[in-house]
Amino acid sequence: MIMRIFQVVTKQGKEEEFGRFFTQKAIPMMKGTKGILQVLPGAPRPESPREFSFVMVWEDLDALKAFAGEDYASPHIDPAEADLVETRSIRHYELAEA
């Protein structure tokens, strides 16, 4: 299984608008994506008011590539978020069994 961590920092003043996009579009879309076993959305905290994240657990690399394409290591953006986000990052890990 692949753990994918996606993080964004919104542009200054765009926190509320991105928050609506995140809760109304991004979270439902990711939860409904084939190949994802678990989605853990992260909302901002007082010490990081512009940061949002997703931790996703994918069945395998093939499922992730079916969603993101061969360039799965690059953070893909929805056109609705392009003007709201200052930076984005993505990391992948093998899920360690506890």
From TrEMBL:
Signal peptide: none
ABM domain location: 1-72
Listed Pfam families: ABM (PF03992)
InterPro entries assigned: ABM_dom, Dimeric_a/b-barrel
Descriptive protein name: ABM domain-containing protein
Lineage summary: Bacteria, Pseudomonadati, Pseudomonadota, Alphaproteobacteria, Rhodobacterales
